[in-house]
Design brief:
alpha+beta; 6-stranded antiparallel beta sheet; 13 strands; 30% helix; globular; binds adenosine-5'-triphosphate; Kinase-like_dom_sf; Prot_kinase_dom
Length: 378
């Protein structure tokens, strides 16, 4: 993905042409757009100031006008917990490209933008623990996230509410704007914004005002693929680094365009996220989805009997102990000592199990010895 969204998506059914200074009128307040936070396939996300006495900063996610994100607010309402992004407002916005679902939430610092910096093992473990609790709470509410990966995890930044809004704006990067000027004036259309804005670097701001000594508090966002257990998501998304084997099998071998995604796929993703939080890199780095099955079998050692006929090279000999042994040093860099590393590998091998019915529940994961010490903080 580039640093700004794909311009061709500013069309009917696509992105809303937001620019800095726009005011959006919600149900509980109005919001003045002051900067860009990010963008995805289904939305642009903006830093906005509430236009009330609080002048609080919020994140405003303006979805594409294809209706695919219409259920995000509904799922979020069902799961509100301290480990999911806080829903502050939800409303519809009519514009030149159609009707967009808008949700307003608290501002989070994307965790991926922080992982490369020096972070203590305890910091990493606390993030992992928050995610386990998040998935437990989601499943208790009957909701499956359906697209869990570290790109959808952020750290809260309560300091943002305490700082003077003018100081915050001064401390954030200045706006990097690219003018949108069609070569042929006849192609000018209200579907396009006057300019596109590069997202601000919230991680740098966070590093400056919070530092890495703070105890982090992680939350999950992007509920665009969330659905009630037993139903289907409106859109299929699967991040290669956290996609469950049953989903890969259905997609690649059975050619199912919209495979069912259940709670156990969230648990697989949890294992993949914990690996990445500690080691700093994804468990199946730089692989395409079609290569995943072979690597998953090497990691686990064998393929469940019910899948053997459909799994590529299912009967090749494999040594899962050697697979984990090769990654031990890498994982140890994010752990406190040898025991901590061994406990982590035990937890990962218990969680990243091919057969979905044999994976532990998030509650069981939260009681794992690797989390001892962190559990007592809660
Ligand atoms: N609450 C938030 N606080 C800060 N930044 C956010 C917040 N929500 C989203 N973002 C930023 O905007 C980006 C896009 O958001 P999101 O993932 O919700 O959109 P999407 O279109 O549903 O994405 P995808 O293509 O992954 O489905 C995120 O990667 C993140 O950088």
């Amino acid at each position: 993905m580039g640093t700004t969204e794909d311009m061709t998506r500013y069309t009917h059914g696509g992105y809303h042409p937001c620019i800095v200074g726009n005011i959006l009128h919600g149900q509980s307040s109005s919001y003045r757009i002051v900067h860009k936070l990010g963008f995805g396939s289904y939305a642009t996300v903006w830093l906005a100031e509430m236009m009330d006495a609080s002048k609080a900063f919020v994140a405003v996610k303006v979805s594409t006008a294809d209706g695919l994100s219409a259920r995000e607010a509904e799922s979020l309402r069902a799961v509100q917990s301290e480990h999911t992004v806080t829903l502050l407002d939800a409303f519809a916005l009519d514009g030149p490209n159609g009707t967009h679902s808008v949700i307003v939430t608290d501002v989070l610092v994307p965790v991926l933008s922080l992982l490369s910096s020096h972070l203590s093992p305890r910091w990493r473990k606390k993030i992992a623990y928050d995610l386990v609790l998040a998935v437990h709470e989601l499943h208790e509410s009957g909701v499956v996230h359906g697209d869990l990966h570290l790109g959808n995890v952020g750290i809260t930044i309560p300091q943002l509410l305490k700082e003077d809004p003018e100081d915050v704006m001064q401390d954030l990067d200045s706006h990097e704007l690219t003018i949108v000027l069609p070569v042929d004036p006849k192609n000018s259309t209200p579907s396009l914004p006057a300019y596109v804005v590069a997202p601000c670097n919230l991680a740098r701001y966070y590093g400056r005002i919070c530092g890495s000594n703070d105890t982090p508090h992680a939350k999950i966002f992007d509920f665009g693929s969330a659905h009630f257990a037993g139903s289907q998501p409106t859109s299929f998304q699967c991040a290669v680094e956290a996609c469950a084997p049953e989903t890969v099998l259905a997609r690649i071998v059975d050619k199912d365009e919209n495979p069912p995604i259940g709670p156990t796929a969230d648990v697989w993703a949890l294992g993949a996220m914990i690996y990445e939080i500690v080691s700093g890199s994804a468990i199946f780095r730089s692989l395409g989805i079609s290569a995943l099955l072979t690597h998953m079998a090497s990691m686990t050692g064998s393929v469940p009997s019910q899948w053997q006929a459909r799994w590529p090279n299912s009967d090749s000999p494999r040594d899962a102990g050697a697979w984990w042994g090769q990654r031990r040093d890498h994982l140890k860099k994010g752990c406190t000592d040898d025991k901590d590393t061994d406990d982590l590998i035990n937890l990962l091998r218990k969680t990243l199990v091919l057969d979905p019915s044999k994976r532990p529940s998030p509650k069981e994961i939260s009681r794992d010895p690797w989390f001892m010490g962190i559990q007592q903080d809660d």
